[in-house]
Amino acid sequence: MSSPYKRILLKLSGESLLGEQGHGIDGVVLDRYATEIRDVHSEGFEVAIVIGGGNIFRGVKGATAGMDRVQADYMGMLATMINSMALQDALERKGVQTRLVSAIRMEQIAEPYIRRRAVRHLEKGRVVIFGAGTGNPYFTTDTAASLRAIEIEADVILKGTRVDGVYDKDPEKHDDAVRFDRITGDDIIRKNLNVMDLTAFTLCRDNRTPIIVFDMDAPGTLRRVLLGEDVGTTVYWD
Questions:
Q1: Which of 147, 107, 124, 169 is nearest to 11 (CA)?
Q2: Which of 37, 62, 131, 229 has a beta carbon 3.0–4.6 Å from 81's, enabling a disulfide?
Q3: CATH number at residue 62
């Protein structure tokens, strides 16, 4: 298939796995995401994934409630591993070969993160799931996604969200919110739009890595993005 991309880094939020539940993992959502990923992988794309842990535990929220920030962040990293293991299982039940790699050593359930090995897995046609964030406190999974995308030389970061792109204001609160088809990263920063945290954004800017924000819950949208169709919002760098 004709596409401007070959190797992608898909960033999913932990909250997206909630579905209609208030906590944990919705099996229907998990299965749907696995189907979407399987379908694009079967067409020859090299797929790497970073998923957050906010449906289970968020380090910042724990710290706000009085917990030690470092301890809370490590708990958040473990939450990403739970989601990563669930996604790995869902993909493998659909016949997709995967490798789960972790920034924190836990050999019983995941390989340690080694860049060259992760790239080799992608070259061999395996979906690679990066768990445990960067392995360091004070960094978000958005930053982990940017870092891993740069390390594996991904062509693009695809950020699957609950909305269909970047808006000038929160579309869930404002009916008159306007969606951008394309916007520069500098404009994102200048307008203070909530796409990624500044550390993640700076990594992408310094390495000229494009970001596409799209609605992961809309069936077939992941494939449409990879085909280069005009969906979502493309964040690019001048």
A1: 147
A2: 131
A3: 3.40.1160.10
